[in-house]
Write a structure and sequence with these properties.
- The protein has helices spanning 19-32, 40-45, 47-55, 105-109, and strands at residues 35-39, 59-64, 67-72.
- By secondary structure, the protein is of the alpha+beta class.
- The protein has a domain at 34-77: YefM-like fold (3-Layer(aba) Sandwich).
- A three-stranded mixed beta sheet has the order 1-2-3.
- The longest helix has 14 residues, at 19-32.
């Protein structure tokens, strides 16, 4: 049985939310929104682990002499481009008959 903790009836004797369950839910929320702070030296030693943290969605703050200097976050991946469909907008675009004719001198002199 799955319980929706936000709407559950906690007065019901069959469903009781304990302090332990509250602690577990809080721990899960904290884990999901975790920010880790490391020194430059530690970042150099643990770069693969820190990259894994960033790819998991966590921010990593890198400090130098106790002051934040950089933040390591994952770069969003662009969605693949949709395949183009030839002829989809047929008739919606047109080119005038004189498209490739040279422009007049009046046009270039701003008299047109």
């Amino acid at each position: 049985m799955r319980i929706d903790h936000a709407t559950a009836n906690w007065d019901c004797p069959r469903v009781r939310r304990s302090a332990f369950a509250d602690a577990i839910l809080l721990r899960i929320e904290v884990k999901l929104l975790m920010t880790q702070t490391v020194s430059v030296h530690e970042a150099q030693e643990k770069l693969p682990d820190l990259l894994a943290e960033a790819l998991a969605g966590n921010d990593v703050i890198i400090t130098e002499h106790g002051k934040p200097v950089a933040r390591l976050v994952a770069v969003p991946v662009a969605s693949p481009r949709k395949k183009r469909v030839p002829g989809l907008n047929r008739g919606a675009i047109w080119t005038s008959e004189d498209f490739d004719e040279p422009l007049s001198d009046e046009f270039w002199l701003g008299q047109e």
